Request: fold
Amino acid sequence: MNKLIAITLFLLCSPTLNSCMSAYIKSMGGNTSQVLERIYLSDFNIAWQAVLEVLKNTRMDVTNKEGGFIQTNWTENTAEKNFIDSFGDTGTYLKAQFRLKISLEKGNYRGKSNVKIKIIKEQLIQKDALEGWRAIETDSIEEKTILYRIGRVIFIKTKIIQDEEERGKKEIEGTHF
Reply:
């Protein structure tokens, strides 16, 4: 009986079986979302405002500041997807849509606060009227662009705060009572 359990565990934990299983899951449209993340040396409130500023033209489905989570509504992007994929070997899509899930996690690095921002883009396509929605893997361009823009907004907001603090210190030093 113990040999049977050992063989079963070996087969379940085998790397070749796992790789075959992951290839099967991807072929069926599962586990296609990639998590892109970046850590910013910033206060959580500044990072939260930066994310909202970057996504200001996007409709939000869920925004939870205490939980550090944002989810956008499904956005139709059929024209963009057909244009981008027309240069490849894939056909056109009847419909395409995506949504973003963004999470912010507070952290601390050498006594300074930091924030880890994770982005997941869920992309769904429909090739014809008879086929249902199918998840596809993202090209990660939009997520990387959003992370870059968040970083730039955080940098600008932090610089403005530093300049205001320096200006306040100079005004205090310059006044005589």
